[in-house]
Amino acid sequence: MKLKCNTIQRLISDHIDNTLSTNDAAKVKKHLSLCQSCQKEATALRKTRDLVVGFYVAPEVSDSYYHQFEVELHRCIENKGPIPINEHIKSLVSQFTWSFVTQVRQSFGRYNFWHRHLLPISVLLLMIAAGFVIHLLNQPDSLSLREYPRQIGKPMIAQGLTTVDEHSGLIHGMHNDYIMKRKAPDQVTSSADSADGEKVGYWKLADPISTETEGHIIVMHVSEDRSVPSDATDSKLIVYVQPDILSKKSPLQNNGYAAFPSGIPVELFLAKYQRKHRQAPRFVNKLMYEHSKIPYIPELYDLSKL
Amino acid sequence: MERTEALLIDNLREGDESALAPLVEKYKRMVHRLALQITKNHEDANDVMQETFIKVYQSIHTFRQEAAFETWIYRIAVNEALNFVKRRERRRESPLSTTEESEYDPIVMQRAEMANDPQINAEKTELRHWVTKAVNSLSLKHRVVVVLHELEGLTHAEIASILNCSEGTVRSRLHYARKQLRLLLKPYVDATTNCE
Asked: Within 10 Å of residue A210's Cβ, how many Cβ atoms?
């Protein structure tokens, strides 16, 4: 009877709130009808609850207080403004971390085994994961937001779109640069195909380049005769676009021309590029460069005038 | 035309600051009451109320529509109030602390009430005083559960969600708090029990 009373008394609070399941409620009701002590306890707790609900004085203040508060709040909000997005991300990360740590701590509190073994393992795994993320973020080719600002100005090339012929020393690639590759073929026109006879010697995009190309240099080709782009091997100029240039307003960009040379030391990206794409000979040989002749492109060219 | 709460929330999310005022109007009393019941201090309650609404304004984009807005505000207010109480306790523990804080005393309100209404039953006033005092004397975690359940009328699940704990913990704290209150209010509980 004693044990059962203890069990029942734990349910009394829920019983007076009517939050017990039908089964438990029936058990408690049956027990209360038989046990005077528990019945007394239940009555006392119910009375206590009723006293609190009925006689607790909820604090209240005057309307002028609230008016003053609203004025202060308005002023405070004007000063603070909305949370910047980076602050918001920080707070979310910290909330998640604390919630995770709390849950882990609670789990360990419950189980002695976890307390002994899983905490160090979890910490180790977290450290490994953190190290991996830091390693990824520090990759030189990473185009993550964190690394991007440092890479502006460095020559880069749209990966997988071009390659270098080691024998001829020429860069080979596709006319279809990053943007073009993402568009349907009928959206890409060249001056050779176009009815627009005024603009020759370069390839033209059906739509202007957008900032989708961030992080890539668009490598283009202009044939030597500057009249018709072709697959012939006499082409000698490499033209490429730098991400930071894309963000600027440019007449060429506005006209929809992908070709956009800039003052970038070509040697740098060639060295890097050769290392990366030596084993990728499957691309169409349409784009080439003789870096001994043009080691540096010193200024912006308006290709329509070349 | 009066905007619905959902529309106000959407507007606030889009940066329309004017949408905050009706929400403040609707919830200010609830937040203040809650803050004062938890902090037992007028100054802290005022700060809690202010911080709560600033947080609502700044974090409205994190509010998920599937949850009740009222519960979301409760959560912010309770957490702010708990932080204030913890901070205050740390201040008190500090040997350099010399600040005197004006603790919320329900007896002041009783006297004001009696002055306004001379016919009020003195016995009832005394009972209110002791009940309020008893609730305020509970430990913080038990007081919060009692305030949210008995006075604000929230369910166990809602309280568990606000306090970020299990429903079982809420039930257990509530049961313990009631037993404590029963001891503190024993003469009144016994009197009313015997009357039946």
From this structure: 11
CB contact under 8 A, B189 and A70: no
Q: Do A43 and B110 touch (CB under 8 A)?
A: no
C-beta atoms surrounding B1 within 10 Å? 4
Say which of B24, B174, B189 has its CB closest to residue A51: B189
Note the pLDDT tens digit of each residue in B97-141: 444 444 555 444 444 555 555 555 677 778 888 888 888 889 989
Residue partners of B157: CB distance under 8 A and separation at least 6: B167
**Contact between chains at B24 and A49 (C-beta distance less than 8 A):** no
- Please, which residues have CB within 8 angstroms of residue A233's CB and are 6 or more apart in sequence? A168, A170, A285, A288
| Pair of tokens at residue A175 | 């006319």
Helix axes B167-184, B156-163, angle to 10 degrees: 100
What interface predicted TM-score (ipTM) does this complex get? 0.76
Distance CA B170, CA B70 (A): 19
**Is B137 near chain A, with CB under 8 Å?**
no
Q: Select from B57, B146, B178 the Cβ nearest to the Cβ of A45.
A: B178
pLDDT in tens, A176-207: 333 322 233 343 343 333 333 322 233 333 33
Give the distance, in angstroms, between the CA of residue A4 and the centroid of all CA atoms in the same chain.
57
Interface contact flag, A55 B135, Cβ < 8 Å: no
**Residue B152 contacts residue B144 (beta carbons within 8 Å):** no
